[in-house]
Every structure is written in C-alpha cells, then in structure tokens.
Design a protein that fits this description.
2 copies of one chain form a homodimer. By secondary structure, chain A is an alpha/beta fold. A 7-stranded mixed β-sheet of chain A has the order 4-10-9-8-7-5-6, with helices on both faces. A 4-stranded mixed β-sheet of chain A has the order 1-2-3-13. In chain A, strands 11-12-15-14 form a 4-stranded antiparallel β-sheet, with helices on one face. Helix content of chain A is 41%, strand content 16%.
C-alpha cells in the first residue's frame, strides 16, 4: 500500500477535503508513549497530540478498557457504581461550586450542553466569545467559530477581541490601561446584547486562549471579565477541552489565568482516545438543565467511559504528570525564549506547561504563516511532529503527551536549531 | 453499596433527573451475550439494548478494541489504512449512490452533519420530520423533537403526521386513500416551507418510524414521499440509527419500508458500545460539505472506531445475524400476534425483525400508557428487560441484541403470558 494509493482511496471513502497534516502526509501505523511510527518504521516524537495525554497505548488505560468492555458497557439508565464514582472524582478536582457532571461523547456535545445550560438558567440567549476561537463543530457551537470566519459574529453571538499584549488594541498602552480597554470591549458587547433583546446568557472562553495562539493576557483581565459577566447576570463557561487535565502544569487552565468559572467543559484528554467529554457545574445548574431537557446521550455516562476516565486520572496521579509537565514545560519554554533573542524569525514564545507557542515573524515583526508551515514540515522531516496555529496561523504549536520528558525536549531543541539554521542558511 | 445509597450519590454527582429505567432501578454490574446481571447476581434477558448489537462483552469486539488501543489510537489528520477500509466496507452495504462517509461520535453529531449537508447542498433551510420523532439532543437536531414537545414545529422545521394505519388521519379510508392523505400533508408542509422563504432542504425520517411506535405504514408511502421531496429539490435523509445494522432482518430499514435515501445516518449498534456514528452519502454531497465546513471531529474517524466497527461487521457476517434476526423475529411476532386475538389488552403487534412493538390498550382500544408501564415493570421482575415507547408511551418495546435466540423468545413468551395472567387475574 503506497501512500499515494491510500490518499486516493481515502479521498473516495471519506470525501475530498478530509483534513490531512503536512505537505507529505504521515502514514501512521503505531504509537507508544510519546512516539508515533509510520508505515516505513520511522519513529517520530509526537509533540502535537493532547488526546493520548498519558502517552500512546498506555497499558493501564488499555487494561481498563478491555476489562470494562469485557464486563459491561451499556447506556446510563441503570444504576452503575463506576460512572458515579468517576463523576465524584472529577468534581473533586474543581472548587466546591462545581458539583455535578453531564457526560457526553465530544467537546462539541459538552459545549452544546454548556450553552443550553447557560441559556436556560438565565432565560437569555446572548453568548460572548472571542474573535479567534473554536469551540466545536455543531450548528449552535459552530456559530462561535470566528477563526477564519468570513462573517462577523451576529444574532445571539458577539465576538470580542481576544486580550493580548503582543498586538494589543491600544498600542503602547500600559498593562493596566490595556486591561481596561479590553474590558470596555466586553462591556460594549454585553450592552449590545442587552439592547438587541437577546440579553446576556454568558461568556464562553478557552481558559488559556489556545486557538487564539496562547497570548499573554493583560494581568487581571480574566477575573475582572468574569466578574463583569456575573454582575450582568451571565454565566462564565470555561472551555477546558485543551487547557485542562494538567496541560499547563496545573490541573485547569482557569488556575493559570486566574478566574472562577460557573460551568467547566472538558474533553480531549479525558479518555486517552476514547470519546469522552463532560460539562460540570453546580448541582442547581445541572438539575435545572436535566429537568428542562430530560437530556440523554446513548453512548455517554457509560461504564466504559467511566473505567477509562478513571484509568487516565490514575496514571496522571501515579506518574506525577502534573508536576512533570510544569518542570519540563518551564525548561523548554525558557530554552526557546533564549533562542528568541538570537533568531529574528522568532517573534515571541508563549504558553504554559507543555502547551507552548513559538510565533514566527517576518523582518518587520508581522506574522509569517508561510514560514511557519515550512518550519513545521521541516521539523517533521527531522522526526518531530508539531503543527501551526493561532489567529494568523504563524504559531508553531507544541502540545505533546504529558509524558514528554526533558530528554525529548533536548532532542527537539537540537532539531529546532538545525531547522532554523537550514532556513537562515 | 445499597441501591438507595447509590441513587443518592448518583443524584448528587450526575444531577437530579438523570434518567433511570424501572420503578425499582436496576443496579447492573455485568453483561454477557443477551444477559445482564445485577449486583445481587440476578440474571436478566436483555430485550432492550440495540447498542451491544452482537451481544454484551462479545470477545471478538473486545479483542479488536484492546489490540487497536494497544497499537494506535489517534485523530484522523494522518493517513491510516484501517479507517479507509472501514468506510469502504460500510458504503458497500448501501446502493451505489452512497459512496463516502463522515464519521462522528454519536447519532446526534451524525444527524447534525446530515442536516447541514442537506442545507448546504440545496441552499435552503427547511426540514420536514414527523410529529412524534427524535433524532438527537443538540440544539439544531433537538428542534426536530416532537415527542412530548409542547410547542408545534415552526421556523425552519415542519412536522407532518407520521403515516400509520391504526389511528389514521382519515378513519375508514382505504390503504390507497390513506397514502394520498398523508402525501397531501407532506405536500402542504413543502408548500408551507416554500412560502415561508425557508424552502425545502430535505425530509429526515427514521426508516421504520421507531420512536413513532413502529406503525404499519400505508403501502408505497415512503417511496412516494421520497419522490415528492426530490421533485421539490429536497434531499431524503434516512435515520438508520435504530433501524439499521440488521435490526429488521435486513441490513437497512429503508429496504423494509422501500425507499432510496440520499443521505444515510447510522449510529447506535456500530461500535457495540464504543461511541461511533456516521453520515454516508454520494461523494458529491460529502465533498461539498467538507469543502464548505473543513469538518473535523477529534475522536471520530479514529483507528479505534475503525477496528471496533470492523469487528462488529465481522461478527454480524460470521454469525449470520441478519438471517437469524429475520427468523427469530418473525416467529416471535407471529406468536405475539396470536396472543392479540386472545387478550384484550393487546391492541396491536407491529414491527420488523427483532424490533417489535406490542401496543397496550384499554377496553375501548385507547392507548393505555399506565398499564404498559406496569407490564414493563412486571416483566422486568420476571427477568426480562423491555421498555415502553411510541407516540402515546403505550408500546412495549422489544429490541434485544441481535444474538437473541428462539429459546430466549420462548422464555419471554412464557413470562409475558404469566404477566398478562397476573394482570387479568
């Protein structure tokens, strides 16, 4: 099976345009720990995948999966201890206000629940998001997608500029002034929704603004934005699909950017590849949602989801992954920041824990998407898998499994240096 | 762990109102083949669950799951042979016009894709469904839920009365007259959408009207409805989430009710409990959808979905389940139909293959939901798990794993007879 033949079969069976990474797509056959292997046996260090968060093919997760699927896997309208215990363990990882959980099969479904929950609880329709976000692919959640969108947000949705220090809406402003400027935009959006009759149901935001390119946020913005939303009667939804599960070196992104959500959405890393996501909130919010919707999700809240979800939490705790992510991530970010001073291509190095963005720029500091794509492909040819992201597509996105080690980081830095040399040379 | 304690913990962790079956909920711990076992070791014949379609804990499925999760499970933006082969195998089970597949994690997500696909392809918004249907729990798909809805369908959605012979919209009409009467209602709905400016994007229908209570449909209605929709420029979406995968003794429900869909949605049984669903259509429809949306679904189209989906198809073919379902289902339906003449409680016996509805009525033939619920609970106490369904909640729903045998059917008939005797006596 050549890759060319497989590409043609894939285009027929899955349709043209099913997304593929890299100029020369990777034909992948095996994963183990932080490594992926292609059909020719070539080994790559996976620096992209956050779903297999405890590493590809982790034996403890595989064992939990086979044990539960071989014992019982059925829908949730029976009593089952495992799913209750998993929900209890998950809520204990949040502050006391987060008490109950609705499980779903995807981040999209979990964000659907969050939006409906906020709208039902407030009796209002208006949702505020950022202008470079992505929260999922359903019709309702897709309305929040501003990344690459041709139309401005409208109707029940208002997009505000994402807060950042690198290309701020008020150039040259102090941190405090910038914070006020972004808060003004949020206030405008709230008032706009109120005047339109939609009213404010809530703010939804990735806690670390991942799709926006992991910007440095003016100090205090997130907490004050949350206060402003609540003072206007809205709810704050933290989308932790990318930010959560120790990705940042803390359990949750909202601990890093310092705000308290009313509703927390989790997804990608929860099942190490098993479809599993969740919407957690106060019992009162969840009760109201359940009473109004009789929500049921066939595949969710299953014994399989619970067993695998528990196994992932086991590994994170047993292997000390949160602490490891904090240490390895800080060292990698520091090493990359050093390189920023030495290489004009690197406009900025940002991020938290093992979620780091390297901003690639032209000579005048403008975003250089083309060069970013070139770097991603060149590093891939050297055996390291990354991608590009951010509002301008010019951020090299580093987001490996949480088991990524100091040694892997050093190997990557050598390859990154060589890639920059290739390009400069 | 008593059931009472577990109910209290469940209400806290999952919120009040997370749905539970039976007056005395079942505390379930194990499944094997067509059997489920409770915490006290009591064995039940599962006559409800269509998700574990090849039987609970089927070893071939478990083996495929562990092998793939232990080898590779990652998102779909790499080339992977397994997912392409699964899509090819799935499309080969449909007529030639169904060529390409978009995988998702749930029937809801797959119906979201189908609706968006129909709307994009036609450039129109209007969707027609039946007045007692359910296609999923997202905001967009939930607008089609008429079952128990307080509001009439409106906006871009029009609901038509589901076609049936038992309580038809024109009492006393011949079959041919009745077919015309229901087609008139469909024509009205199309014209209504056209006048409203929404236009007709498509008709979405469960191919065997499962949530409507498996009614006997006036002959020829479905094919003529599909023709009328296409003649008006709309697309026909067959929701095969319940009807498909040999449930009826044929591969697809549309073979039973005899129409040709443009878009086919499958879900529940595809992964024997692994979240897995799909939207299949012509390559042209899929290409257009992909080009317009750049659709990506993190957990879907994964090597795990493909391996498990393949294993389910293996078992269905190797164990001859389609033929078995046809034979066991026909015998069970015939045996229940005999009882209809002998017992005034039984108003009707309907269905296809191993999806049978027993309509429970009062003395004057009106739907008797209360008595239906009583029967379902009494049969459960005798060791057989069913549920109630239908537009009036008065249909005992029989929908066991496809491996349900003649012997299980005979055991059930004994328990059913004893239950009717208990009630009559």
């Amino acid at each position: 099976m050549t890759s060319t033949t497989l590409v043609a079969r894939r285009e027929q069976a899955l349709g043209a345009g099913a997304p593929l990474f890299y100029n020369e797509p990777l034909h992948i056959v095996r994963g183990e720990g932080v490594h992926l292997f292609d059909a020719d046996g070539r080994r790559y260090v996976d620096m992209y995948n956050n779903v297999p968060c405890v590493g590809h093919a982790h034996p403890h997760v595989v064992e939990a999966m086979v044990r539960q699927q071989g014992t019982l896997n059925v829908h949730s309208r029976y009593l089952h201890e495992g799913i209750v215990a998993f929900a209890e363990r998950l809520t204990r990882l949040h502050p006391a206000g987060i008490q109950s959980v609705i499980f779903t099969c995807s981040g999209t479904e979990a964000n659907e629940v969050a939006l409906r929950m906020a709208r039902m609880a407030t009796g209002r329709r208006g949702i505020i998001c950022t202008n470079a976000t992505y929260h999922g692919n359903s019709e309702a959640v897709g309305k929040l997608t501003r990344l690459g969108a041709e139309q401005p947000a409208g109707g029940d949705v208002r997009a505000i500029p994402f807060p950042e220090k690198l290309r701020p809406i008020v150039p040259g402003a102090s941190d405090a002034e910038l914070c006020e400027a972004y808060l003004d935009r949020l206030r405008d959006a709230i008032q706009h929704l109120e005047r339109s009759g939609a009213g404010l149901a809530g703010l939804i935001v990735c806690s670390i603004l991942a799709n926006e390119g992991l910007p440095d946020i003016p100090d205090g913005f997130m907490a004050r934005a949350a206060e402003m939303v609540r003072a206007s009667g809205g709810l704050v939804i933290a989308d932790e699909v990318q930010a959560g599960y120790c990705r940042t070196g803390r359990w949750w992104g909202y601990e890093v950017t310092r705000f308290t959500p009313d509703i927390v959405v989790t997804g990608k890393p929860m099942g190490n590849g098993l479809p599993l996501a969740a919407t957690a909130a106060s019992k009162a919010l969840v009760d109201t949602f359940r009473a109004r919707t009789r929500y049921f999700n066939t595949f969710a809240s299953s014994p399989l989801q619970a067993a695998v979800g528990m196994a992932v939490l086991d590994v994170i705790e047993r292997e000390g992954l949160r602490e490891k992510v904090a240490a390895v991530g800080a060292a990698l970010k520091a090493a990359l920041t050093q390189r920023k001073g030495r290489c004009a291509l690197i406009g900025d190095v940002r991020g938290h824990g093992l979620f780091i963005g390297i901003e690639i720029v032209t000579g005048d500091g403008s975003p250089d998407r083309e060069r970013t794509v070139e770097i991603v492909n060149r590093i891939k040819d050297k055996g390291f898998l990354t991608s590009n992201a951010g509002a301008f597509g010019n951020v090299v996105k580093i987001r490996p499994p949480l088991t990524f080690s100091q040694r892997h980081a050093e190997e990557f830095l050598d390859a990154f240096d060589a890639t920059l040399d290739d390009i400069d040379g």
